[in-house]
Amino acid sequence: MNSRERVLRAVLRHGLPDRVPLQFDLCRDLLEKFSQKYSVPVYYTTSWFEDVTYRISGNELRMAMGSDCVIVGASLPRNYTHSLDNDGCITNEFGMKMRQGPLYMELLGNPLAYVADTKDVEDFPFPDPLADGRYDDAMRYIERYKGEYFIVGDIELTIFALARHLVGMEKLLADMALSAPYVEHLLDKCMNFMLAMGKRLVDLGVDGIWAGDDFGGQNGMLISPKMWRRYFKERYRHLYAELKAVNPQVVIMQHSDGAIAPILGDWIEVGMQVFNPVQPGVPGHDPEELKRRFGDRLSFWGAIDQQNLLPFGSLAEIEADVKSKIEVLGRGGGYMIAPAHIIQADTPMENVEAFIGAVKRYGRY
Fold it and tell me: What torsion do the CA atoms of 65, 66, 67, 70 make, to the nearest 10 degrees?
């Protein structure tokens, strides 16, 4: 059973694969360190949003380390680079100014913070989602690995995340609560931008599409389930349907950090097939409860804590957690194991390798 067959059998719940499939992402610091250790060069595909770069880069290295997935996405247009100022800050195609923080990229300003009405949204220039060269790397990976590895097309920052990066979280949430007229128009414009990218990736031949919007925090949802249903449920229904219209076999994979159990049933209803990252340690995400409530309708991807366990846990604790998650979420199939986010520079290399080793040791059916 090759990697593509393994992932498809697991996430579609069509019987048991030979083992639980594995996927993981590494930050730049870890990519460089493991590249040196394994003598596998890292190829970087720079995304239009910097953090996504580390989802779609280093595929050759991650495969050499055991990943069953190749992750591709939209890059920058051909012959275009982000501007870089004297302070080391970049400005992307949307006009978002960012700098590298201790772990993640930090957004320094919101280019649509002034938005007051729908005309402001209409006049704000979005980049061309189909610009020349944007899919050169994706095409190369798909042509090389199609049929052997499960190829994921990444369209994270799908609606809410893109809108809040443009407007600012506080203002967007307040304006959503106040029913500001521009909000619906902005959400549609964000959705259509990312949908164009997604449809192009599906047309190129990816096996799954990875959409992403964070609606949860450590203790609960960032917005109420009622507000999610008002603004996002039908947009996601439309997004998924449009992707399936290009290829009915494409697997719909949805990322949302935080405690989002109250809307999982709704998300399944509109077409979500795989839930990522199954953030551990938040209300409603007990593995047994998730498997019991949703395991016949939903597959799980993630569930390994990268906030505390991977950076600070012992090798024995990492092994025990991997074993437990496989026993519960992997019971009967329906699970691809992964850390709940990009593994960051605070994680020792030996802990990353302990995680991968434990998957190989306990993941066999």
Answer: 70
Q: Which residues contact 242 (CB under 8 A, 6 or more apart)?
A: 195, 198, 199
Q: How far apart are CA 180 and CA 116, in angstroms?
A: 8
Cα 196 from chain centroid (whole Å): 17
φ and ψ of 197, to 5 deg: -65, -45
Using the structure block, give the residue that is written with the tokens 């239009």: 48
Q: Which residues of 177-215 are buried (b: 16+ CB within 10 A; e: fewer)?
A: eeebebbbbbbebbbbbbbbbbbbbbebbbbbbbbbbbb
Structural domains in the chain, sorted by start: 3-82+121-362 (3.20.20.210)
The string of pLDDT tens digits covering residues 264-305 is: 999 999 999 999 999 999 999 999 999 999 999 999 999 999
SS3 365: coil
Contact 155, 73 (CB under 8 A): yes
250, 151 contact by CB (below 8 A): no
Among 80-84, 134-138, 267-271, the range scoring the smallest mean pLDDT is 80-84
pLDDT for 101 equals 78
Model pLDDT, residue 124: 98
pTM equals 0.97
Q: CA 54, 56, 61, 67 torsion: positive or negative?
A: positive
DSSP letter string, 221-280:
BSS-HHHHIIIIIHHHHHHHHHHHHH-TT-EEEEE--S--HHHHHHHHHHT--EEE---T
Convert 46-95 into a string of H (helix), E (strand) and C (coil): CECCHHHHHCCCCHHHHHHHCCCEEEEECECCCCCCCEECCCCCEECCCC
How far, in Å, CA of 260 to CA of 305, rounded? 16
pLDDT range class, residue 164, cuts 50, 70, 90: very high
Instruction: Summarize the confidence of residues 100-106 as an average pLDDT.
Output: 77
pLDDT of residue 102: 72
